[in-house]
Amino acid sequence: MKMSILKVSGLLLAASLALGACETSGDAASTASSASAGSSATESATTDSDAASTTGEVVDTVNPPTAEEALAANTDASTVNDDEWDASTATSIALSGSTASSDGEGVSIEGSTVSITAAGVYRLGGSLDGQLSVDAGEDAQVVVILDGATIATTAGAAIEVVSADDVVIALSGDNSVSDTSSYDDSAEANAAIYSDADLTITGDGTLTVSGNGNDGITSTDDLRILSGALVVTAVDDGLRGKDSLTISGGTVTVESGGDGLKSDQDEDATQGFIDIKGGTVTVTSDGDGISAQTDAVLTGGTVTLTSGGGTAEAADDASKGIKAGTFVIVEGATVSVDAADDAIHSDGGLRLSAGTLTLGSGDDGVHAEVAAVLDGATVTVSQSNEALESGLVTISGGTVDLTSSDDGINASGSTTAEEGLAATAEDSTDTSAQTQQGMGGGGGGGMGDSGEQLNISGGTVTVDAGGDGIDSNGDATISGGTIVVWGPTNDGNGALDTNGTLAITGGTLLAAGSSGMAESPTSTGGQGWVQASVSGSTGSTLTISDSSGNVLGAFDVAKAFSNVVFSSSGVTDGATVTIDVNGSTMTATAGQASTSGMGGGGNSGGGRR
Question: In angstroms, rounded to a whole number, what is the distance separating the alpha carbons of residues 534 and 585?
Fold first, then answer.
């Protein structure tokens, strides 16, 4: 896997750069990072993904931050709240066909172009076959109330903000905006609503936007949706806030030929982020559903994404559901994705801490180039090639249900700082800056000199894999949680596959799959385990008991198997364990690998992808 961790503008990294693990900008962040669930290797790790930004700051993508930490490290998005202006002071503008009328100051009308030239509040109603222009000066705050307004043009953007500091579009009643069917390649204003200022959309009305020539709504600064009902159709991107895009409420429906929601500022590493705090967001896009140059942060709301035609178009499309250059963080939202390519993809790290995610993917369900931390969310991958893939995988909480045609969990990244630096330097010729301020606190997965790449310390994990169930190109540790793996039925893969040690020190594990490449845990120290060559079919009942008849685990079989590995606190190495499949029993000695398969503590040629 190519580790395109960070793309640093104007900076070539020296391979000899000394990197420290979990570098943070404060004691609180350091404490959070060292205390986070996951890998004991974090404390002594050298971080392969730390890199200096153009401002000399450091990003730690091995330890993905919380939503609060990530947003605190970014530039605050500009907004104008509803209590910062007064609708009763509005100047009225009556739209009428190819012209308009107004008695107020700050309004000029020339043919079919209505221009707002001063700060203030303006109320527009009626229909205009022309353009609304806001050219009020770079320090002006302008509020445009669309009150039953229709603005359509065949020459450029329907609403263009040429000059202002902050612009508000407040919705009252039903409104619509439609632009030209094509733009010249040199045109700067190339959206139905185009703003060269920070833009806030609010109100209790509706707005239908037809981006016939390019984008639906674009701000070259910050774009924020507070409330209202937006229906946006665009031949290219639906909503684009270059510096940032924030959705705090309302109902947003986007159908786009490009990306649905986009922020693409590549000259400032603290911008280019998307922040969804609430509302109901539905996106159907030919491109990515959500595309953030730096971070995609989802802390609330209901988000439904269909990208690239969904899984039905997987063979022909690379469109992703959620894509970010630095971090993807989900902390409270309800997310549904049907994507032709990865459902969730981060070029750096990701953290799924809360909320419910239901993901269908034509490729990876959840993918991070550097580190994936799952520490509380409910994650269901219903269809994928590989369900969860990252260089480092840490699961410390939540409910994780993974279905894949190939590997269920694949920890497959670089294992040393030098490898990470080499990959970062290779990618540094890409001039888009995707580093951020130092963010240590928060993650749960570090990587030490031991090359530990998979750590499960909590949560409930269920895997149904056509390839390897759990696959680590380095070491793997299970220290807590409940893990059930229904692995492959073909002998070319295994329910467990590591290229280092497989250590079990706690939790409960059942791994049932084929016998050809079956692997057992490491036999030195740790928690007791048993492996047996025993067969079962879908619908069977599998029961594992100790020598006194105490049931250690009982499972409804979801898939045919011919080899079982089981570990729990009730298993003692050297003791006799009974395995029962629908009344047919056999015994095995705990701590001894079965004679079939590869067995023997991670020596089965791990890391197959």
Answer: 9
Provide the 10 A C-beta neighbour count for residue 4: 17
Of 80, 74, 79, 65, the closest CA to residue 32 belongs to 65
**Given this model, what pLDDT does residue 315 score?**
67
User: What distance in Å separates the CA atoms of residue 128 and residue 21, rounded to the nearest whole number?
Assistant: 59
* First-residue to last-residue Cα distance in the chain: 10
Mean pLDDT by 10 residues, the chain (609 residues): 31 25 31 33 34 48 94 95 97 97 95 97 98 98 98 97 98 98 94 98 98 98 98 98 98 98 96 98 98 98 97 82 98 97 97 98 97 98 97 97 98 51 36 32 37 90 97 95 96 93 96 92 86 96 96 97 97 95 95 60 37
Do 600 and 606 contact (CB within 8 A), yes or no?
no
> CB–CB of 305/336 below 8 Å?
yes
Cβ distance 472 to 446 under 8 Å? no
Among 476, 484, 410, 469, which Cα is nearest to 447's?
476
Question: In this predicted structure, what is the pLDDT of residue 274?
Answer: 98
Query: For position 441, what pLDDT does the model report?
Result: 35
CB atoms < 10 A from the CB of 239, how many?
33
Which is it for the CA torsion 402, 408, 414, 416, positive or negative?
Answer: positive
Helix (H) or strand (E) holding 163: strand 159-163
Residues 193, 230: Cα–Cα separation, whole Å: 12
- Rounded distance between C-alpha atoms, residue 80 and residue 145, angstroms: 14
- 184, with CB counted inside 10 A (0-12, 13-18, 19+), is exposed
| 170-198 residue pLDDT tens | 999 999 999 999 999 999 999 999 999 99
- Alpha-helical (H) ranges within 112-188 are none
Cα 571 versus chain centre, distance? 38
User: By the 8 A CB rule, do 132 and 114 touch?
Assistant: yes
Instruction: Report in angstroms the alpha-carbon separations of 203 from 17, 145, 168.
Output: 51, 9, 10
Asked if residue 154 lies in contact with residue 180, where contact means CB atoms within 8 angstroms, the answer is: yes
d(CA 488, CA 287): 33
User: Which of these, 502, 35, 546, lies nearest to 483 by C-alpha position?
Assistant: 502
Strands 551-556 and 541-545: antiparallel
Q: Which residues contact 312 (CB under 8 A, 6 or more apart)?
A: 340
Name the residue type at position 58. V
Letter string b/e over residues 69-91, b meaning 16 or more CB atoms within 10 A of that residue's CB: bbbebbbebbbbeeeebeeeebb
Pairing, β 302-307 against β 327-339: parallel
DSSP 213-250: SSEEEEESSEEEE-SSEEEEEESS-SEEESSEEEE-SS
| Entry field: residues in the chain | 609
SS (H, E, C) 24-85: CCCHHHHHHHHHCCCCHHHHHCCCCCCEECCCCCEECCCCCCCHHHHHHCCCCCCCCCHHHC
